[in-house]
Predict the 3D structure of the following.
Amino acid sequence: MAASLLLTNVRPMAGPARDVLILDGRFAPEGAAAPAGVAVEDGGGALLIPGLVEAHTHLDKSLLGLPWYRNEVGPRLIDKITNERESKKRLGMEPQRQSERQAILSVANGSTHIRSHVDVDTVQMLEGIEGVMATRDKLADLIDIELVAFPQSGMMIRPGTTDLMEEAMKLGCEVVGGLDPCGIDRDPKGHLDFVFALAERYGKPVDIHLHERDTMGGFSMELIIERTEALGMQGHVTISHAFCLGMPDRAYVAELTERLAKARIHIMTTGPAAVTAPAVAELRRAGVVVCSGSDGIRDTWGPWGNADMLERAMFVAQRNNFRRDDEVEAALDVCTYGGAAVMERSDYGLAPGCLGDCVLVEGEAIADAVASRPKRNLVVKRGRIVARDGACIAEAP
């Protein structure tokens, strides 16, 4: 639902203070006259930044609002995947309720867009997809939610999952997901052939979790690059995590980076603390679009996360040893424009004609806001105020 709003005395991207008009849900040209009776909000000299973009999370899995979960899960990736799949029923997980709780928290913290990977497997079937779609529709006036059909438990190793992936796309998922073609499915050709064929059949982009490290991850990445180029999908493929880009063999990483840039494949990194990670500055210098996300928030994998993409910008900055103001600004760019580019939102930003999605936050400079991470004064979606003083206008169930 589009609205009109006049924001007075705000500083777009820490620039000079001025008034900003949102007219019928879009930013008006600077100096445009506000119509009579338009709603007015005094920005008080606060920073105006575009809406934050949560480009990688799992809305169907959060335990927000549920009793404390005691985590005693084994260290392997497959341990976490298996435990999560088996725990959902026991813990009373309801994908619609849990996704709504997390999405409302995201709105309160300034996110205006979410890309959520949602599990598709032979136990939960399409319950997660249907639940998150219900939240997407319910909160459509507050935040844009995009679903990735995600075979978290594997696909080729679990017969029947490919049929469910097809059904998820028929239901209306916007992105085809994938997961560790070698490490989990042990069939990289079969896995990636199916993922890209499904994407081609439905005309949708691809977003593949790639936890595989070192040369195994590099091998899978090469296969993804080859398929992206062969099918003309440049600009429509994202590799999430891409831990292999942090491997010690920097010559091989440089070669992969050059190929990623040529194929216009995007990279998502959470700025992880305990594993190898892509070097954000190197990727951006090469022309690779980088985005970020919270990943799991208070789930069976770990107790962390608060859906705050301003804090995520801080994590990205710290993981990459960003200290200069321009480097910290780049970390925020990853969590705003980078995510919007990955989600293919061409009308995102603060320029005239862009959707009126923005956040007011205190700070002397962009780097100050990232370092301090104060409550969001105001969150605006298509000209409508959806959060004020750190609280969403909608209550979580």
